[in-house]
Amino acid sequence: MNIGKTAKASKVSAKMIRDYEQIGLIPAASRTDSGYRAYTQADINQLHFIRRARDLGFSVSEISDLLNLWNNQSRQSADVKRLAQTRIDELDRRIQNMQHMAQFKSLIHYCAGDTLPDCPILHTPGQPDDSEPDPEACTGAMGWQSVGKS
């Protein structure tokens, strides 16, 4: 199967297939007599695996490790679980960071956005992670006072 049909079947672009070959994520395809790349169903299966791993957020290096495990019939499931757990732990950290960003977003409502220097957004980094700004303690055009300044 040529690269165009392989790209369509695997839902991986022809450019990415070439890139994966170049970086060694997949083996170089065999060539037809006229020099075109020729792929097999096994290649398509591997590309599906890569695409799914990318969609799950695995890095190229991690995907390479997963492919080695996938192709190794004497693999230990503990190795696969370790890689998956590392990915899950990273995703949990990212989720927690995004939740903190969402809390930070709420500070926009407490900032007067005027010409005065006081703004609760700038005072928050010194506060504990679980604290909320006190809009009563802020001043600006709305009559709020400065928070946490010494």
UniProtKB/TrEMBL annotation:
<dbReference type="GO" id="GO:0005737">
    <property type="term" value="C:cytoplasm"/>
</dbReference>
<protein>
    <submittedName>
        <fullName>Cu(I)-responsive transcriptional regulator</fullName>
    </submittedName>
</protein>
<dbReference type="GO" id="GO:0045893">
    <property type="term" value="P:positive regulation of DNA-templated transcription"/>
</dbReference>
<dbReference type="InterPro" id="IPR009061">
    <property type="entry name" value="DNA-bd_dom_put_sf"/>
</dbReference>
<dbReference type="InterPro" id="IPR000551">
    <property type="entry name" value="MerR-type_HTH_dom"/>
</dbReference>
<keyword id="KW-0805">Transcription regulation</keyword>
<dbReference type="GO" id="GO:0003677">
    <property type="term" value="F:DNA binding"/>
</dbReference>
<dbReference type="InterPro" id="IPR015358">
    <property type="entry name" value="Tscrpt_reg_MerR_DNA-bd"/>
</dbReference>
<keyword id="KW-0963">Cytoplasm</keyword>
<keyword id="KW-0238">DNA-binding</keyword>
<dbReference type="Pfam" id="PF00376">
    <property type="entry name" value="MerR"/>
</dbReference>
<feature type="region of interest" description="Disordered">
    <location>
        <begin position="122"/>
        <end position="150"/>
    </location>
</feature>
<dbReference type="Pfam" id="PF09278">
    <property type="entry name" value="MerR-DNA-bind"/>
</dbReference>
<dbReference type="InterPro" id="IPR011789">
    <property type="entry name" value="CueR"/>
</dbReference>
<keyword id="KW-0804">Transcription</keyword>
<dbReference type="GO" id="GO:0003700">
    <property type="term" value="F:DNA-binding transcription factor activity"/>
</dbReference>
<dbReference type="InterPro" id="IPR047057">
    <property type="entry name" value="MerR_fam"/>
</dbReference>
<dbReference type="GO" id="GO:0005507">
    <property type="term" value="F:copper ion binding"/>
</dbReference>
<feature type="domain" description="HTH merR-type">
    <location>
        <begin position="1"/>
        <end position="69"/>
    </location>
</feature>
